[in-house]
Structures are given as C-alpha cells and as structure tokens.
From TrEMBL:
Gene3D superfamilies the UniProt entry points to: 3.30.420.100
Entry keywords, A to Z: Ribonucleoprotein, Ribosomal protein, RNA-binding, rRNA-binding
Chain's gene name: rplR
Taxonomic placement: Bacteria, Pseudomonadati, Pseudomonadota, Alphaproteobacteria, Rhodobacterales
Protein's organism: Sagittula stellata (strain ATCC 700073 / DSM 11524 / E-37)
One MF term in the entry's GO annotations: structural constituent of ribosome
Xref: HAMAP family: Ribosomal_uL18_B
GO terms for cellular component: cytosolic large ribosomal subunit
Protein name: Large ribosomal subunit protein uL18
SUPFAM superfamilies, A to Z: Translational machinery components (SSF53137)
Length: 119
C-alpha cells in the first residue's frame, strides 16, 4: 500500500524530531510550523513542557498579516529571536518538523540566527 503525502510528512517529522532529541538533550527547541497561508515559531522547553516565546505571521504588529512569503518568514524569525532574548534564552536547536529546510523555513532560521539566537 502506498503512503499518502500526509503519512510521509508525519514519518519525516518524527524522524527529524527523534534524531534532534538524542543529540540536543536539555536544550530548548525552536519549533516551526508552516501552513499554506502562515508561518509560526515557538520556543519550547520540553523538560518543563512550557512554551517560552512564540511568533506568528498572524500577529498584526509584525506587519505581515496576509503575506505568505520569504520576507514574512524572516520577520517572524527576527521576532522570535528578540522574544527569546527577552526570555533569557541564547541557544536552542531548530526543529523544522517535517518541512524541508529551504524557502520560508530557511529564511526564518537565518533571521533568528541574525537576531542573535544560536541555532
């Protein structure tokens, strides 16, 4: 039986997350979610089960509502880096989920790095 796109995505997401957890135990996770219309990022402490900071292209103050492009992703990346600094976080590992590391996901990661977050 052939796997559907969704099943392949879920397998890829679990594979990426499990590999990252083995290598980065104890560090915070910068998790990215990309839909067809928006992109969002969360800084998660898996030990405590808490989200420390988040940013999304749905936030009006970022000025990218309704824009689904690389520039919007870069603004979300800069915002998450700024909020991470405010929360006292300097270092995290990048969890791309099942999304490929190019385009909007890469732009978000690069902008977070430029904002001072060590990924």
């Amino acid at each position: 039986m052939a796997n559907t796109k969704r099943q392949l995505f879920l397998k890829r997401r679990l594979r990426v997350r499990n590999k990252l957890r083995k290598v980065n135990a104890g560090r915070l996770r910068l998790s990215v979610y990309r839909s067809n219309k928006n992109i969002s990022a969360q800084l998660i402490d898996d030990v405590a089960g808490k989200t420390l900071a988040s940013a999304s292209s749905l936030e009006p103050r970022l000025g990218v509502v309704g824009k689904n492009n690389v520039e919007a992703a870069a603004k979300v990346g800069a915002a998450i880096a700024e909020r991470a600094k405010a929360a006292g976080v300097e270092e995290a590992y990048f969890d791309r989920g099942g999304f490929l590391f190019h385009g909007k996901v890469k732009a978000l990661a690069d902008a977070a790095r430029e904002g001072g977050l060590k990924i």
